[in-house]
Structure formats: structure tokens, C-alpha cells
Sequence to fold (247 residues):
Amino acid sequence: MGYSNRLWDKSISIAKGKFIILFQKIVDLLSLLLFLPFAIPKIRNFRHASSKELSDFCFLGVFGLLRPVQIKSEVLEFINYLYERNGNRLVLEIGTARGGTLFLFSRLACADATIISVDLPTKATRLKLLLQKAIPLSGQQMQLIRADSHNVMTLQTVKDIVRDKNVDFLFIDGDHSYSGVKQDFELYQPLVKEGLIAFHDIVAHDQVSGCGVDRFWREVREHFPYDEIIYDNKQSWGGIGILYKNI
Ligand SMILES: C[S@@+](CC[C@H](N)C(=O)[O-])C[C@H]1O[C@@H](n2cnc3c(N)ncnc32)[C@H](O)[C@@H]1O
Fold:
């Protein structure tokens, strides 16, 4: 295939990808506008008896408003991992999106946990915040920071909340470029003195996606004990990598 044909194919895949993202954003915004008042009490009152119930609620339960950007079977396995360690008092997530994983982490953390989640501000931020503020249990504190995780001011805001405490669980699922994920790791991993650091999207993606998490994951896992949750080795996205730091 000639160079111009490859360039054309690549431009078409990028345009298709951008169209799908825009379409998804419009659907998300319309669903939020329509269903928010019904979703808030459902989220507040939800109590689960099993990991499956928790994951089903997240993916299907509230009109898709909380749907995580994850592979369902991987989430289920990840929930079981976190169940075994449900003593998390301080959780930090980079990349809130709708709030799907944030919801899971809050339900798996201690009843008096502090949960921090960072994401970029968008036009839908205010509506999403109304939904996300319904997530914490009554004894939990949730801090939703809407700023660039790479900004030193954001790191300072996080440090002001954490103070001298230990982040028990850090979930990195924000900027998926190689330099973006590396920066998130370098900035926030010192806050985890002992605990878990997990990354989403550790499987190799096609080049068009610009995802470099797999490359960073292969480098970083050399330095820690680790586990991987990958549903199917042929899948083109997803996969969760878990590092154990000093535990
Ligand atoms: C894949 S989504 C997160 C999905 C979420 N963890 C879930 O599964 O429910 C990635 C999110 O990271 C956010 N993001 C990307 N770059 C960022 C940055 N530099 N700082 C903060 N958030 C960022 C995006 O806005 C997006 O909402």
C-alpha cells in the first residue's frame, strides 16, 4: 500500500474516532439532563450485597450515567481484589470521567474514607458534579478536583488534602499518552508510601489511539511486584495493571 493510501486510512480512522467521541459526549449530556433527578436518590440509597450487584449497578443501574470506561469482566475481578483490601482510607483517582470507577472505589473503601478524584473541567462539569456529589457514603469525604493533573497547583491541592497521611490506593486513568501517564505516576506515586497503584489501559492499543500506557506499564512493572487483569490477550483496549508499593 502506498504512503498516500496509508495516510488517507489513518486520517479516516482519526476522523471516525473523533466523531464517535463527539456523539458519545452528546448522548451523555442529553442523558444527564433527562435522568439526573431520578439517578441522584438511586445512587445515594444503593447498597450492594455482592461484587456482581455492585458492578451491574455501575454499568446498567442508573440509565448508564455512571458507566465506567472499563471492560466489565475486568472490573468484576478488580472489585474482588479491592474487596480483599477493603481497608482503604485514602483513595486518589486521576481521571473521573462519568464517575463509574469513583463510585466503585467509594463503595469498596472504609465508611470514613477520603476519596479524591481529579479530572479536567468540561462544559458538562457542573451537571456531572451534581451526580458525582451523590456518590459518597454519609461518613465519607469526597474531593472532586477539576483541573489538569499535571499542573503543580493541582498536585499542591491534592497534597493539602492528603497532608501527612498515606494514599492507600492510587488509580491512574487520566491522560493516556506515554508522557501523560508517566507524569501522573511521577507526581502522585510519592503520596503512596504503602499501597496499591493501578493503571487502566495497559494492553497495546492501535497506534491511532495515541495511547502509551502499555509502554509505560512495561517499564514501571520492572520495579515493583505486580498483577495484571486482562480479560482477553487479543483485546485492543483495557487491561488493569496493579503495582504493590511496599506491601
Ligand atoms: C478513560 S477516562 C476515565 C474513566 C474513569 N476512570 C472510569 O472508568 O469511570 C479518562 C479521563 O481522564 C481525564 N483526563 C485526561 N487528561 C487529564 C489531565 N491531564 N488531567 C486530569 N484529567 C485528565 C479525561 O477528561 C477523562 O475524563
Notes: Residues 3-245 form a domain with the Rossmann fold fold (CATH 3.40.50.150).
